[in-house]
Amino acid sequence: MSAVVISGTGLYQPPHTISNAELVASFNTYVEQVNAQHAQEIADGRREPLQPSSVEFIEKASGIKQRYVIDKDGVLDPQRMYPRFQERADDELSLQAEIAVAAARQAMAQAGKQGADIDAVICSAANMQRAYPAMAIEIQQALGAGGYGFDMNVACSSATFAIEQAVNAVRAGTARCVLVVNPEITSAHHEWRDRDCHFIFGDVCTALIIERAETATSSDQWDVLGTRLVTQFSNNIRNNFGFMNRSEDSDPLARDKTFRQEGRKVFKDVVPMAAAHIEAHLASLQFETTQVRRYWLHQANQSMNQFVIKKLVGTDATEDVAPLILDEYANTASAGSVIAFHHHRAGLQSQDLGVICSFGAGYSVGSVVVRKR
User: pLDDT tens for residues 20-71?
Assistant: First the structure.
């Protein structure tokens, strides 16, 4: 089969940041307002008061210090606490396609590609802006790409799952050069009014070019040695928003219509699952976990990544072995491991091994073993 390489990456970074201090100030104002509104119920013992948040709590729980967002004002408005986007006409480029095109153009430039060189587009993210037409087809048109495009969703593992589809398409000969984009507008599906998770997410878009090695001209190429995916059903991370909500006569603003998780259960389940998955994948390729020069892991929680690395290599995670971008970007759903790869692959030498790995709702785990050319 043809050798397949990642020949370019791109990153769209939103224009606004929200620090933990700003987020806490907004959240605590909301808490004060709600508690005042229900003061009598709280006094009577019929309702539990909401608890305030703090910068110390956020950083200890996650390692996050800030996040990028497309809209800041709506998120920080205690009367709203979710983004405010302007609806666009059907003949305008949609917001999700817009940020995907921006990231894609960076990846294409790095790989030395034009739109005509791309014959498949996979748009893979935790949430899609609409049901149809597929976001990928809109992105394909905006870039002047040929071939075909489709959307897919495996929550926080969407990027690595899409990479496998792209690699398989190139190896099978159904595409020569595939663009994978991960437009994660997480701020729109996040619950900013829940103390346990109000700090977790940020917006971003990543892009990768995956192509036959024989057509690659980039100065920075990574052989894809193997991909491996696994899923195991769990309700511990869930979002019930969907097209049937109206027919169910359910409240579209109910708590279950945004992101929610049982964080401690997720930590307990996913850490050993991810570590075992990576170890088995490397073993199938005749590699030891200690032979890997760098791990670009899913960016959800600092402690989670440290535990995964310790299980794999027997030591605490260092920035050199498993770089974190979590403090700056927060959790960006499927894009996190790709952001880490985008920012932290320079300086590695020819033949150095790396693993791009994501894990999230499903449960799902996806790993991509790469080697520097």
Answer: 999 999 999 999 999 999 999 999 999 999 999 999 999 999 999 999 999 9
Residues with Cβ < 8 Å from 215, sequence gap 6 or more? 176, 177
Given pLDDT bands bounded at 50, 70 and 90, which one contains residue 1? low
Of 115, 200, 182, residue with least CA distance to 356? 182
The answer to whether 120 and 175 have CB atoms below 8 angstroms apart is: yes
Residues facing 148 on adjacent strands: 120
Amino acid, res. 298: H
- Best CA proximity match to 7, nearest among 149, 281, 207, 226: 207
Q: Is the pLDDT of residue 251 over 70?
A: yes
CB 145 within 8 A of CB 131: no
Contact 360, 238 (CB under 8 A): no
Whole-structure pTM over 0.85, yes or no?
Answer: yes
Contact 183, 125 (CB under 8 A): yes
Judge whether 358 and 300 are in contact, CB under 8 Å: no
Number of H helices, E strands in the chain: 11, 13
**Phi, psi values for residue 206, rounded to 5°:** -115, 160
Residue 106 to residue 368: CA distance in whole angstroms:
22
**Is residue 210 within 8 Å of residue 216, measured between CB atoms?**
no
Catalytic residue among 123, 156, 197, 357, which? 156
The pLDDT assigned to 175 comes to: 97
Active site annotation includes 156 = yes
Which residues make beta-bridge pairs with 37? Answer: none
Q: Which two tokens stand for residue 358?
A: 């994501």
Among 143, 161, 112, which Cα is nearest to 151's?
161
Query: Cα separations (Å) of 98 from 35, 120, 186, 206, 267?
Result: 40, 18, 15, 12, 34
Buried b (16+ CB within 10 A) or exposed e, 298-317: bbbbbebbbbbbebbbeeeb
Q: How far apart are CA 31 and CA 49, in angstroms?
A: 8
Give the Cα separation of 251 and 308 in Å (integer).
38
Residue type at position 42: I
In this model, does residue 102 exceed pLDDT 90? yes
Cβ–Cβ < 8 Å for 308, 289:
no
What are the phi and psi torsion angles at 120 (to 5°)? Answer: -160, 140
